[in-house]
């Protein structure tokens, strides 16, 4: 008999009743160090006092009015995002998949309104992940996500990630945009080569097409800058963001230049709940915290401590950990043995991690992690690797 909760997840038999900072407590009272952050979502940890206060204060005022009216919080948060990025305008939604759907629609509408009605195809990278809607699984192109959902949404071409020659060869008269993650997350924490990402900008300009970055997972301080592309001196035309933007509250955003958004006029897109007052109150506070002087510098500093510790702890176990990948606090351990085995054993010892493609274990701790908590995680990892080796 099917469960009342639709069984679309392979869930661990574990439930949590409260959290604080980098820690969660399960319903049976066990304490866990959270290096998964709800898949890079609780970027400021659990129950951050400023986020709790912002949500409680807004909850006592108004929750929802719809986008039939002005939402003052959207105007505040959009201004902060625009002032901190390449963008001129922002569309608010509820998730990363919705942000990427908006990105796809915007790219097509841009060319349609410019008179190029046949430019609708988007070049994506093999191994990418952009969400679970019909369009975004087509953009990701992975068979495990597409199986059973035919016919596949038309309009996406796939080339090897990092191969600029293959990408240029794929550009044709129907190409509207290039869409990639600066670091492939679900695909196994695969950073894009900085020169490759910069040349994508040059290539898009050369062929008159748009560049879309999916920063749903890489954004909001995860790599040590507010968005990963900012470290590289390159900017997209359109960008999807979510996850850490709400610190655990559902918030998504599609950021764009004025030029790229020229077709996004009244009626072109919409969302019932997107940018509601609750979401905006939290996102506003998240941005305030992350843009405070020294916050992102501290993320970079603690990520260096974690990376050095991982290299020290993993070095004796080349038959278990083949490679350490990633940037900032977005790190992948490429496993030789099944990653599920390591994830389960770490969890049994009180450390929560996240699986990814290419047999990778993701480490995505909250950005407020302390050095003592990093050392705690490294100690658990060291003990677990010794157990697996034995």
Describe this structure in words.
- This protein has 2 domains: 16-48 and 294-389, Aspartate Aminotransferase, domain 1 (Alpha-Beta Complex); 50-290, Type I PLP-dependent aspartate aminotransferase-like (Major domain) (Aspartate Aminotransferase, domain 2), CATH 3.40.640.
- With 390 residues, it is of the alpha/beta class.
- A 7-stranded mixed sheet has the order 4-12-11-10-7-5-6, with helices on both faces. A 4-stranded mixed sheet has the order 1-2-3-15. It has a 4-stranded antiparallel sheet with strand order 13-14-17-16, covered by helices on one side.
- A hairpin with a 2-residue loop joins strand 13 (321-327) and strand 14.
- The chain is 36% helix and 19% strand.
- The chain has 12 helices and 17 strands.
Residues in β-strands, percent: 15-25%
Biggest β-sheet, characterized?
A: 7 strands, mixed
What is the CATH H-level superfamily of the largest domain? Type I PLP-dependent aspartate aminotransferase-like (Major domain)
Termini separation comes to 40 Å
SSE series: EEEHHHEHEHHEHEEEHEEEHHEEHEEEH
Helix-strand category:
alpha/beta
In total, the number of domains comes to 2
Rg computed from alpha carbons, rounded to a whole number of angstroms: 21 Å
The number of helical runs is 12
Strand arrangement within the widest β-sheet reads 4-12-11-10-7-5-6
Enumerate the spans where pLDDT stays under 50 for 5 or more consecutive residues: none
Mean pLDDT figure: 97
Per CATH, the architecture of the largest domain is 3-Layer(aba) Sandwich
Estimate the helix proportion, in percent.
Answer: 25-40%
Number of strands: 17
The CATH class designation of the largest domain is Alpha Beta
CATH topology of the largest domain: Aspartate Aminotransferase, domain 2
The coarse overall form would be globular
């Amino acid at each position: 008999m099917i469960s009342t909760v639709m069984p679309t997840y392979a869930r661990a038999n574990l439930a949590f009743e409260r959290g604080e900072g980098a820690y969660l407590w399960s319903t049976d009272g066990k304490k866990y160090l959270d290096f998964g952050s709800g898949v890079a979502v609780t970027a400021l940890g659990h129950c951050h006092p400023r986020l709790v206060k912002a949500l409680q204060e807004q909850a006592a005022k108004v929750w929802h009015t719809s986008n039939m009216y002005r939402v003052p919080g959207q105007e505040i948060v959009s201004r902060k995002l625009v002032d901190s990025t390449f963008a001129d305008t922002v569309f608010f939604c509820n998730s990363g998949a919705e942000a990427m759907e908006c990105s796809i629609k915007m790219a097509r509408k841009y060319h349609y309104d410019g008179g190029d009605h046949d430019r609708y195809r988007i070049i994506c990278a093999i191994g990418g992940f952009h969400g679970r809607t019909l369009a975004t699984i087509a953009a990701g192109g992975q068979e495990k996500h597409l199986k059973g959902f035919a016919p596949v949404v038309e309009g996406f071409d796939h080339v090897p990630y990092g191969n600029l020659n293959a990408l240029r060869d794929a550009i044709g008269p129907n190409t509207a945009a290039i869409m990639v993650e600066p670091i492939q997350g679900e695909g196994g924490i695969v950073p894009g080569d900085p020169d490759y990402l910069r040349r994508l900008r040059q290539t898009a300009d050369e062929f008159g097409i748009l560049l879309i970055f999916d920063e749903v997972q890489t954004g909001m301080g995860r790599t040590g800058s507010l968005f990963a592309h900012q470290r590289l001196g390159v900017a997209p035309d359109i960008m999807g963001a979510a996850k850490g933007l709400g610190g655990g509250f559902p918030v998504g955003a599609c950021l764009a230049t004025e030029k790229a958004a020229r077709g996004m006029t009244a009626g072109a897109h919409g969302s019932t709940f997107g940018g509601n007052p609750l979401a905006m109150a939290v996102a506003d506070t998240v941005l305030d915290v992350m843009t405070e002087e020294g916050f992102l510098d501290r993320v970079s500093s603690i990520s260096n401590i974690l990376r050095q510790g991982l290299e020290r702890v993993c070095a004796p176990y080349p038959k278990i950990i083949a490679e350490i990948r990633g940037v900032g606090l977005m790190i992948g351990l490429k496993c030789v043995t099944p990653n599920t085995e390591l994830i389960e054993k770490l969890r049994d010892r009180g450390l929560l991690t996240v699986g990814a493609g290419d047999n990778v274990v993701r480490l995505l701790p909250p950005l407020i992690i302390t050095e003592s908590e990093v050392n705690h995680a490294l100690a658990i990892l060291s003990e677990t690797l010794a157990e697996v080796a034995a």
